[in-house]
Design a protein that fits this description.
Order of helices and strands: EEEEEEH
Structural class: alpha+beta
Number of strands: 6
Radius of gyration: 17 Å
CATH superfamily: predicted glycosyltransferase like domains
CATH architecture: Beta Barrel
CATH class: Mainly Beta
Largest sheet: 6 strands, antiparallel, barrel
Helix content: 10-25%
Distance between the termini: 34 Å
Shape: globular
Number of helices: 1
CATH topology: Thrombin, subunit H
Number of domains: 1
Strand content: 35-45%
Length: 128
């Protein structure tokens, strides 16, 4: 989970991102929240910051193979290791409700992981 002066918590996640208006090759999802996501594309790209783009996100933890269809607006882009990272703001989309369910699932999984970490790193643990 990442909290770098953001309105909502971003969760590290991975998945395939299809954005045919940006790149013929799919991108890789790096993190996601209710309001935004970061995607890495394997090519050097330029995006028009005035356009909105439809992204089809195949998430790693989603049970079925139906991708999330999200309308996104690019906020920034930068070259990285021969590719391009793009930060998107997620706008009201056909799958906003499904995204909300997915983020709730990530949050619950993250809370469980944090509770296990505190148990394992508790300095007061005793061996019997």
């Amino acid at each position: 989970m990442s909290q770098i002066s953001r309105k909502t918590v971003r969760f590290k996640d991975f998945g395939r991102v299809d954005a045919p208006d940006i790149s013929l090759l799919p991108g890789v999802l790096e993190d996601i929240s209710l309001q935004g996501c970061k995607v890495r594309f394997p090519l050097s790209l330029t995006v028009d910051s005035d356009n909105d783009y439809e992204l089809k996100i195949h998430t790693s933890r989603k049970q079925n193979s139906v991708p999330l269809s999200l309308v996104c607006h690019p906020q920034w882009s930068r070259g990285a290791d021969g590719g391009t990272e793009i930060g998107f703001q997620i706008l009201r989309s056909p799958d906003t409700a499904k995204l909300s369910e997915y983020i709730n699932q990530l949050s619950a999984d993250d809370d469980t992981a944090e509770s296990f970490e505190t148990i394992l790193t508790d300095p007061l643990c005793q061996f019997v």
